[in-house]
Amino acid sequence: MKEKVQGHVARLFGGGGLRARALRSSGFTVLGYGMSQVLRLASNLILTRILFPDAFGTMVLVSVLLMGLGMFSDLGVSTSIMQNKRGDDPEFLNTAWTIQVIRGFALWAATCVLTWPMATFYEVPQLIYLLPVAGLTLAIKGFLPTRVETANRHLLLGRITVIDMGTQFVGIVAAVVLAWATQSVWALVISGIISGLAELLLYHLYMPGEHNKFRWERSAANELVSFGKWIFLSTVAGFLVTQSDKIILGKFLSLSSLGVYNIGFFIASFPLLLGSMVTRRIMIPLYRERPPANSLENFKKFQKLRMLLSSGIFVLVFAFAFSGQALIQFLYDPRYSLAAGVVVLVACLQVPQVILLTYDQAALAAGDSKRFFVLAGCRAAFIILGLLIGVQAAGLSGALLGQGIATLAAYPVVVWLARRHGAWDPLHDLIFTFLGLVLGSLAIWLNAGAIIDMASLN
Predict the structure, then answer these.
(1) Burial class of residue 278 in the structure, from the number of CB atoms within 10 Å of its CB (0-12 exposed, 13-18 middle, 19+ buried)
(2) Do 168 and 207 reside in the same domain of the chain?
(3) DSSP assignment of 315-382
(4) Does any domain span residue 4?
(5) Cα 166 to Cα 42, 170, 207, 338, distances in angstroms
(6) Per-residue DSSP letters for 256-271?
(7) Given Cys at both, which of 247, 325, 358, 458 links 340, Cβ 3.0 to 4.6 Å?
(8) Rounded alpha-carbon distances, angstroms, from residue 201 to 48, 142, 170
(9) Domain span holding position 294
């Protein structure tokens, strides 16, 4: 019996077939992300005992600007390499790398220009000094080799996982040492630069393949820009979807309350971020090689995979929803106790996003970046509207509820996009909607006290 099980596992994960590569890539992604979150949590627990909540609130604002600039200028180079027929052509890859390098320096310059407006809007003078230094990480990332995207394209993620974990470990050690020495938010900024340099060095030394050179092939650049113009707009919308809560709440909450909120969000977002990473890394190659619209057999395979992914993420989501209060009390000191309600509510309100997680990659795999942008734009508009109405009506609780309703409002657009590529699975959506309503209602009822206490964050 034991030999049969071992043989079955070896057949599933061994060899160079699509299914084996997808399973291995999923395993590496889950392992890498799990280890990453363990390291982040350990770092977080140490740093929250060294630094005050204000430091984390300030760093949220720094991160929002850097992430915003990175996403607002994204030309979809990574996605283009993964889906383009020339994704293994050296001239195409070198042109893509040249674009990335130019973009990195442009982003750093933009960071310097935006320091004063950010510091003035949020009334945090320290941002004038923090942002130009933190922005150097954007220039460093521009030099990352395209060998990373090539490995993603072929679902060869083992070495990427190891390098990412090594990079994170270096950054965490640097953050803890600097926090102990400086007792300042500067520890988080400088450790980000150290981490970026370590990532660049490790990828250049240990990622197999040809080293990038500065090249500019006009036809490759035109392909990248043509595909990337819609990815650029989609990424702008994606930034607003994922960061609008921090942008808006940063104006309504104190730095201390924003830091506490971010701690709760960090804990609750683990399942969805893991699911997003797995689907992003494996679904585009799978959709590209086995489009569900091509045959019923392909659709059935995606249906099984979708059920499996959603089930796994649901288990994690509600593990955090039911245990959020106990987790915060066990892991953090009393200064962060109000984060418990954030964990519970954010976890429950992520259910609609989990249900819809595997659909939009079908459009990217087919090169349909225009319709992908339509979906991302609708999501962004609904979420910003939901946040603004919610925070004005009921503070932080209202803002989070508004986000959840906004995701539901975008459902018809998701269905429209998924049907265009033969990916929509109404049975899957119905099953997990029912489970989400039952389990979410129970989690909120059991943790009602923590959610009520959360309302005192201001």
Answers:
(1) buried
(2) yes
(3) HHHHHHHHHHHHHHHHHS-GGGTTHHHHHHHHHHHTHHHHHTTTTTHHHHHTT-HHHHHHHHHHHHHH
(4) no
(5) 15, 6, 13, 33
(6) HHHHHHHHHHHHHTHH
(7) 325
(8) 29, 13, 12
(9) 253-458
Task: Please write the tens of the pLDDT for every residue from 24-63.
Answer: 655 666 666 667 777 777 888 888 888 877 888 888 888 8
Final residue in a domain of this structure, among 165, 195, 229? 229
Residue 247 lies in a domain: no
Question: Are 75 and 188 found together in one domain?
Answer: yes
Half-sphere exposure of 7 (CA within 13 A, CB side): 4
Is the domain of 158 the same as that of 303? no
Are 117 and 170 within one domain? yes
Q: Are residues 181 and 63 in the same domain?
A: yes
| Nearest residue to 36 (alpha-carbon basis) of 198, 229, 171 | 171
- Sequence-distant (6+) residues with CB within 8 A of 250 are 57, 60, 61, 64, 122, 258
Tell me, yes or no, whether 5 lies in a domain.
no
C-beta neighbour count of 392 within 10 angstroms: 12
Indicate the DSSP class of residue 212.
P
Give the whole-angstrom CA distance, residue 111 versus residue 129: 11
The Cα 447–Cα 427 span in angstroms is 30
Q: What is the CA radius of gyration of the chain?
A: 22
CA distance 423 to 429: 12
Q: Is residue 12 part of a domain?
A: no
With 0.85 as the threshold, say if the pTM is over it: no
Count of domains observed in the chain: 2
Lowest mean pLDDT among 207-221, 228-242, 413-427: 228-242
Report which residue type is found at 399.
A
DSSP string, 10-42: HHHHSSSSHHHHHHHHHHHHHHHHHHHHHHHHH
Do 132 and 273 fall within a single domain?
no
Give how far Cα 277 sits from Cα of 10, 14, 31, 118, 438, Å. 25, 22, 12, 30, 27
258 and 359 inside one domain: yes
Provide the residue count of the chain: 458
**Which pLDDT score is estimated for 12?**
43
Residues 221 and 258 in one domain: no
